Amino acid sequence: MDWVLFYRKFNVLSVEQALTLPYCTYRLAQEGMRVIRVESPPKGDPNRYVGLDLLGEEGMDSYYLPINGGKESMTVNLKTGAGKNLLYDLIRRLKIDVFATNQMPQNYSRLGIDYETIRSIKDDIIWLGVTGWGPDVFEPAYDPVVQARAGLMELNGEPDRTPMNIGVPVVDMGAGEHAYGQIMKALLERHVTGEGKRIDISLFDSAISWAATHLPVSLTSGIEVTRRGNTHQFFAPVSLFQTRDGYVYLGVGNDRQWETLVHLSEFRHLDQPRYQTNRGRMRDIPHLLTEIGKIAARKTSGQILDLIKGAGLVAGTARTLKELQQDPLVQRRLIRTKDPKTETVVVLASPPLETPFLNASGYRLSFPPRLGEHNRRILEDDLGYPLEDIRSLERERIL
What is the distance, to the nearest Å, from the Cα of residue 41 to the centroid of all Cα atoms in its chain? Predict the structure, then answer.
């Protein structure tokens, strides 16, 4: 089967802003699906105005660009009856397969985008709603707030310091990945049954699922699971060690690996009966880490990596993002997109998996769309609206 053509037949209409849902639909665009993001005029997605001004142009800042390649943009004022009717016309005549929104759930009915309304227009639609705390909780949410409430901050940072926000917006992007997976599952189910589906994804539920290895321990044993810095709750030695020219992370995951480590001449003095089992090593973590730290400090990161990995053990350098860019495993799947207006090339992060569409396109996507960039093209070319009707919608600020 030609999977590029298969995925290109799916159409996604997304009333989106911020990060979670745009990241989800960006993943769908990477599969080759047609993704039209719907924004509210006159300003659109607030993330358009966050970050660095890379193009010298309002509304195309650096926080918006990375997760909106490969999409089209329309502006529709859903607070008006004409705007709602235009949205419904898009769903009906473009044969939209997936409708998605991350508007506040109390606004679904007011904006005419609730599941029952959308389903009445196309009964096999796959409807996705992304919320902070669930569709019945009318409370806004941001990634760090959810991290805090879900206990993720309590697991991040040094034990003698305050809880720490994780440096990557894991809740936003994790919920986006969960939404992506559920959409793909729903498309498969619809292929078999012919029926659409309602999907509700909350940032909070997504975040709780990431505590899969910690929450059960706490609930079952009553043991407090909390911040441990760079060490591990159950394995030793596991930590970050400073070398002569950087940092190396070493992880020993079992007793057999420990035995291999202490057979290396540099670590042989640690071959002691009390350290033969993980339980024994856990009892003496401070001293053990200090001794390994002394070894690391005498060598460069490269020397430590050669030593550890040469023995078949697991270690890696703590890289800067600038260093990460040079990794051949990263380089081979970076996505490049070129702005036809300014000829600026923006490099986007690689997807977690190769896709036939990206392979076929040479890992190129269309440039992130300007606000309302495709209004006229979609209405005129796809729906056959007369130009005067489009101009009238513009004058009335429906677009």
Answer: 26
**CB-based contacts of 357: which residues, under 8 Å, 6+ apart?**
3, 4, 7, 8, 30, 31, 32
Q: Tell me how far the alpha carbon of residue 369 is from its chain's centroid.
A: 19
Give the residue among 145, 119, 117, 123 at the shortest CA–CA distance from 132.
145
Between CA 278 and CA 286, with CA 282 as vertex, the angle to 5 degrees is: 135
Q: Are strands 247-251 and 238-242 parallel, antiparallel or unpaired?
A: antiparallel
Query: How many CB atoms within 10 Å of residue 87?
Result: 25
Read off the pTM: 0.93
| Domain assignments of the chain as residue spans, ordered by start | 3-210+332-395, 238-242+247-317
Q: How far apart are CA 249 and CA 232, in angstroms?
A: 12
- At the top level of CATH, which class does the domain 3-210+332-395 belong to? alpha beta
Amino acid at 334: L
Structure tokens at 393: 């919608």
Q: What is the pLDDT of residues 140-193, one digit of tens each?
A: 999 999 999 999 999 899 988 999 999 999 999 999 999 999 999 999 999 999
> Of all helices (H) and strands (E), which one includes residue 24?
helix 20-30
The answer to whether 172 is a known catalytic residue is yes
Higher pLDDT, 225 or 382: 382
Mean pLDDT lowest for which of 12-26, 226-240, 254-268, 292-306? 226-240
Residues in the chain: 399
Which residue in the block uniquely carries the two structure tokens 């009318």?
138
Tell me the torsion sign for CA atoms 67, 18, 131, 213: positive
Q: Which fold has domain 238-242+247-317?
A: formyl-coa transferase, domain 3 (3.30.1540)
Average pLDDT of the segment spanning 327-336? 88
| Active-site residue, selected from the candidate residues 97, 114, 172, 339 | 172
